[in-house]
Specification:
Helix 1 packs across helix 9, helix 2 crosses helix 4 and helix 7 packs across helix 8. With 232 residues, the protein is α/β, with parallel strands linked by helices. The protein has nine helices and eight strands. It has a five-stranded parallel sheet. A three-stranded antiparallel sheet has the order 3-4-5. The chain is 47% helix and 16% strand. The chain starts with 9 loop residues before the first strand and ends in a 7-residue tail after the last helix. The structure holds cytidine-5'-diphosphate (CDP). The site of cytidine-5'-diphosphate has 15 residues, from helix 2, helix 4 and helix 8.
Length: 232
C-alpha cells in the first residue's frame, strides 16, 4: 500500500571519531526502515585497497588509480552493514588500526572524494537514507531534511573506541587512542577539501553522557517531526 503522505527523508549524521555516528545511524535507519550509508566505511575500503596494493600513500595519482579500479559495496545485513571491496568481505579488515592510521591522505584526495560522493548521492535518489560521516550535511547532501552533528568529550570517545576494538580482540591503550583520535580530529577539521564542519542548519547533540538508546530516540523524534514514520 502506497502512503502518499509518507515522506522518506534524507538524514545526515556528521561528527568526529567516536561520537557515536555509525551506531546511531544504523539504529535510526532500522527504526525508520531506511538505508544506512556509512561513508567512512567507503573511505576505509579505498584505504585498504591502497594498502593491499602497496601504493605510495603520498602519491595522489596512485591513490586515484586504486579508487578507480576498486568496487566498494555496502550491503545491509539486519542492523549491520557488510562492506565489500572487489566482492571480498572487508567489514572487519577496514576497522583495523592500520587502516585508520593510513586514511588521511585518501580522505584528503579531491578526486577520491568526488568519486565517492557520486556513489553516496546515488544511494539517496529516493530518500529514505541515514548517511553518516564528516561532510554528509555540508557537501554531499546540503539539502538534507534533517542534519545532526554529534559531539562527545575526548575521554568518552577514547573509551568507546577502546571497547569497540576490545570486542574484536584488539587491545589499544587509552593514551594511544586519545592521541590517535586527536590527530584525526585535527586532520579531518583542517584539510582543505570537505573538512569536518558543523552544517549551519544542523542540530548539535552532545552524546558524552547519553546512552545509544537516548541518541537514537532523539534523532528518530527529530525525524518524525519532519514527516518520517517510525516502523518499529
Ligand atoms: O568512526 P570513525 O571516525 O573512526 O571512522 P569513520 O567514520 O569510519 O571515518 C574514518 C575516516 O574517514 C575519518 O577520520 C575521515 O578522515 C574519513 N571520512 C571522511 O573524510 N569523510 C566522510 N564522509 C567519512 C569519513
Amino acid at each position: 500500500l502506497v502512503q502518499p503522505d509518507r515522506k522518506r527523508l534524507i538524514i545526515t549524521i556528521d561528527g568526529p571519531a567516536g561520537s557515536g555516528k555509525s551506531t546511531t545511524a544504523s539504529r535510526v535507519a532500522q527504526a525508520l526502515n531506511y538505508l544506512h550509508l556509512d561513508s567512512g566505511a567507503m573511505y576505509r575500503a579505498v584505504t585498504l585497497a591502497a594498502l593491499d596494493a602497496k601504493v605510495d600513500l603520498e602519491d595522489d595519482d596512485q591513490i586515484i588509480q586504486i579508487a578507480e579500479k576498486s568496487t566498494v559495496e555496502l550491503m545491509p545485513q539486519g542492523v549491520f552493514l557488510r562492506v565489500f571491496l572487489n566482492r571480498r568481505d572487508v567489514t572487519d579488515a577496514i576497522r583495523s588500526p592500520k587502516v585508520t592510521e593510513a586514511i588521511a591522505p585518501v580522505a584528503a584526495n579531491p578526486k577520491v572524494r568526488e568519486m565517492l560522493a557520486k556513489v553516496q548521492r546515488h544511494f539517496a535518489v529516493d530518500g529514505g537514507i541515514v548517511a553518516d560521516g564528516r561532510d554528509m550535511g555540508t557537501v554531499v547532501f546540503p539539502n538534507a531534511d534533517l542534519k545532526i552533528f554529534l559531539v562527545a568529550s575526548i575521554e568518552e570517545r577514547a573509551r568507546r573506541r577502546q571497547s569497540e576494538l576490545s570486542a574484536k580482540g584488539i587491545e589499544v591503550s587509552l593514551d594511544d587512542l586519545r592521541a590517535n583520535i586527536l590527530k584525526r580530529d585535527v586532520s579531518d577539521s583542517s584539510r582543505k577539501i570537505s573538512p569536518l564542519l558543523k552544517p549551519e542548519d544542523a542540530v548539535t547533540l552532545d552524546t558524552s553522557e547519553m546512552s545509544i538508546d537516548q541518541q537514537v530516540t532523539f534523532v528518530v523524534n527529530e525525524a518524525c517531526k519532519r514527516g518520517a514514520v517510525r516502523q518499529t
